[in-house]
Design a protein that fits this description.
heterodimer; A: about 325 residues; alpha/beta; Rossmann fold; 2 domains; 6-stranded mixed sheet; 10 strands; B: about 270 residues; mainly alpha; 9 helices; 2 strands; about 65% helix
Chain lengths: ~325, ~270
């Protein structure tokens, strides 16, 4: 466990969750260990993800995000350290990997590249069938999952997945993972390569999924704006290590730290920081546009009553 | 799972052998392959083995990399040896060991050893070509060697280009396969269990996406090449010109001389 997480003098940092679905203890992963091409992807990561949490994992390219999340369902084994998923320790030989994969659904980057069946319905059915469900249950889950991602099962079910648009294909792939009804959903850059409308749609689906199904979600993302808007807690990876693990608001008020790592700050935070640097005493822990508007208006009103200000161009 | 060094993969070095013209190396390999099959007795292979070992030394290759390249065929070597020993059909030879239907004769063992040595020298000498020649040089050498045959309709440039592209995409496709396998495993696919038929069926969720992505990549590549005005090999110039040098002359002479010696010395008496 991270020593910071328990320290009482950092009240803004998320408390250690006793009811952790995923627990990583000092996990390291080295690719091609012992060869000249050896590279350390993840180094000494300790992390607990509690039931029902909505965690964002961010970090620059090559920071080990994708490698880390592949440990969450046993696709990768740690080179050292332990990963415990739903009480099952994955480093032991004979660990029940199937149970773990059932608990944790992992959606890879560009998941539409894994579609293979002749029809959308059969592709979504692949996961549930592998779980050994009978046909009736499988069909029910397919319908349910397609509805969840906003595709009409009647209309899209019989179509070929390869005849769909990019955004639709991605939603079919997401439905394919959802149909397995995982307790934890790990999404690795689910919006990469989509246009702003497609992006918004996917993320809104994720959000409503969280609200309706109460599942734990881990969102790996590049865009700070999305993470700031959706997640309650942010884990920043940098060069394979956890650089920051904090509730969203606290994380983005540490803007300098993020910039140091080479990450963008959400545009709203960025604006507030600039205003502050320019002399307007706004609070910087606002995350949405609406909050920022209120904050700026409040500050300017306060400023106007206290004395005339030069800078009023916001 | 597929990562790591591939057998016979190019190892960059600055050595005499690396610096040879790829055409010299291709022709020398072809000549050696012919010689290996012409040699009929052990002394010839002694000469060839000396040549191969000298070439490895002259190319400054880590001996481990060369040996690793032999590992995949070791099974084949042992198998052919055993087949020759037990089923070579030397019923009239000197019996070394006899037990039931299997008879081991001195001639059988000799024959087995001969075939095994032949295979080892064959693989070592050909892998030396790919170990010391970058894929780029290799295809270019091939193109140049095939150019005279264009008159009879051999599409030299197109063949070389296809080879370059194929080689270029091997690692990409390996990465892609790995990714797709993981994605399907995440959806509960069982790839390592079941009987042969079940395993073959389990490949479908991997092969279909793999082919789809290969076709997509091919389309994109074709578009990108056309966008840069690629129109085949006609009138294309090279950034690096191939040139025969003194070293090539030396290498060609050595290979010819040693090859002739091996054939003469290894003739069946």
């Amino acid at each position: 466990m991270s020593p910071r997480a328990a320290s009482p003098d950092h009240p803004e940092i998320a408390p250690a969750n006793a009811d952790a679905v995923i627990a990583c203890e000092d996990v390291s992963h080295v690719y091609q260990a012992g060869t000249p091409l050896e590279s350390v992807a993840v180094q000494g990561v300790s992390l607990r993800i509690g039931r029902g949490e909505f965690v964002g994992i961010v970090g620059p390219t090559g920071s080990g995000k994708s490698t880390l999340v592949q440990h969450f369902n046993g696709l990768l084994r740690p080179t050292s350290g332990r990963v415990i998923v739903a009480g099952e320790s994955l480093d032991r030989r004979g660990a029940d990997v199937r149970k773990v994969r059932r608990t944790v659904g992992l959606l890879f980057q560009y998941p539409e590249h894994q579609l293979f069946e002749e029809t959308v319905a059969r592709d979504v059915a692949f996961g549930p069938r592998n779980l050994g469900l009978d046909e009736e249950d499988v069909e029910e889950r397919v319908t349910w999952a397609l509805r969840l991602v906003g595709l009409d099962p009647e209309r899209f079910g019989p179509r070929s997945p390869f005849s769909l648009s990019g955004g639709e294909m991605r939603r079919v792939a997401i439905a394919g993972v959802l149909a397995m009804k995982p307790a934890v959903l790990v999404l690795d850059e689910p919006t990469a390569g989509l246009d702003p409308v497609g992006r918004r749609e996917i993320l809104d689906r994720v959000q409503s999924l969280r609200a309706e199904q109460k599942i734990t979600i881990v969102l790996v993302a590049h865009s700070m704006d999305d993470v700031a808007r959706l997640c309650e807690r942010i884990v920043v990876l940098h060069q394979g290590r956890v650089a920051l693990d904090a509730p969203t608001r606290a994380a983005f008020s540490a803007a300098d730290r993020l910039r140091e790592i080479g990450l963008d700050v959400p545009r709203v935070s960025d604006l507030l920081w600039r205003l502050r640097a320019g002399g307007l005493p706004v609070r910087t822990d606002r995350l949405t546009v609406a909050e920022a508007v209120d904050e700026i208006a409040r500050t300017m009103r306060a400023g106007a009553s206290g004395g005339r200000r030069e800078r009023g161009d916001a | 799972m597929f990562r790591g060094l591939v057998a016979g993969q190019y190892v960059p070095r600055r050595s005499f052998v690396h610096g040879l013209d790829p055409r010299t190396k291709i022709l020398a390999s072809l000549a050696l392959i012919t010689v290996i099959f012409l040699v009929g007795d052990f002394p010839g292979y002694g000469v060839l083995a000396a040549l191969v070992i000298a070439s490895i030394a002259a190319s400054w290759l880590p001996i481990l990399a060369v040996l690793r390249g032999l590992r995949p065929i070791l099974f084949l070597v042992v198998l052919t040896f055993l087949l020759q020993v037990f089923l070579g059909g030397h019923d009239d030879g000197t019996v070394l060991w006899g037990g039931g239907p299997f008879v081991v004769t001195r001639e059988g063992v000799r024959e087995g050893a001969f075939v095994a040595v032949r295979l080892l020298i064959l693989v070592t000498s050909t892998s030396l070509l790919t170990l010391t020649t970058s894929p780029m040089d290799l295809t270019e050498g091939l193109e140049r060697l095939l150019r005279p045959f264009r008159r009879v309709g051999v599409p030299a440039h197109e063949l070389a280009m296809m080879m370059t592209i194929a080689l270029r995409f091997v690692p990409t496709l390996i990465d892609e396969t790995e990714k797709i396998m993981k994605a399907q495993m995440a959806r509960g696919a069982e790839l390592q269990s079941g009987n042969l038929f079940q395993r073959a069926r389990a490949m479908i969720p991997i092969l279909v996406p793999l082919f789809v992505s290969a076709f997509r990549r091919a389309d994109e590549l074709a578009l990108a090449m056309e966008a840069r005005c690629y129109r085949g090999g006609e009138g294309r110039t090279r950034m690096r010109q191939l040139r025969f040098g003194a070293g090539d002359l030396f290498a060609a002479f050595t290979v010819t001389a040693v090859g002739a010696l091996a054939v003469w010395w290894g003739r069946v008496s």
